[in-house]
Amino acid sequence: MACAGQCIAYRKADEMRNKRKVGARFEEKACAYLAGKGFCVLERNFQCRQGEVDIIGEEEGYLVFVEVKYRACAKSGSPAEAVTAAKQKRICRTADYYRYLHGIGDDRAIRYDVVAIEGAENTGPDGAQNLEILWYKNAFYHRYAGRNGSGVQ
User: Fold this and answer.
1) If you write DSSP's letter for every residue of 64-127 in order, what string do you get?
2) Pairing between strand 62-71 and 51-59?
3) pLDDT tens profile 38-88
């Protein structure tokens, strides 16, 4: 019996590793896309106790925190819809910590963007990938984590 449980645990670990690999591939595609549009990437995969931000960069005078989402098809919803209010709050807390660590004051203009990638990951016969990349600038406003959990302070 223990063997079956261990197999399930290994499969779940493999799935998580695969999800991270897939996520890393699409974050790389998002970085290349953003750089091609004049976005300056400062940091990738900033992690702390508060959470993680996929891409941090600068564009048009803003310090920008970017969440990258990928979906193979629309049946599970659009990638942008996957950035829930709870996820937005975690990104904002992480951004606050990043700004604190780097001595970036409240006077610095910040923005929260989402890069949504949708389509087949495999390449077609001509070698081109069938991906649609959408960049949602200012996708959400800063969410404050209030004591009562309402987001209002």
Assistant:
1) EEEEEEEESSGGG--TGGGS-HHHHHHHHHHHHHHHHHTT--TTS-EEEEEEEEEEEEEE-TTS
2) antiparallel
3) 999 999 999 999 999 999 999 999 999 999 998 887 667 788 888 999 999
- Residue 148's pLDDT band (boundaries 50, 70, 90)? very low
Instruction: Give the torsion sign (CA, 73, 78, 84, 87).
Output: positive
- Tell me the residue length of the chain: 153
Pick from 20-24, 94-98, 140-144 the range whose average pLDDT is largest: 94-98
Mean pLDDT of the chain: 82
**DSSP three-state, residue 32:** helix
Q: Are 58 and 34 in contact (CB under 8 A)?
A: no
CA angle 104, 139, 45 (to 5 degrees): 55
Query: Computed over its alpha carbons, how large is the radius of gyration of the chain?
Result: 18
CB 111 within 8 Å of CB 127: no
Can you tell me the distance from the alpha carbon of 18 to that of 82, in angstroms, rounded to the nearest whole number?
Answer: 19
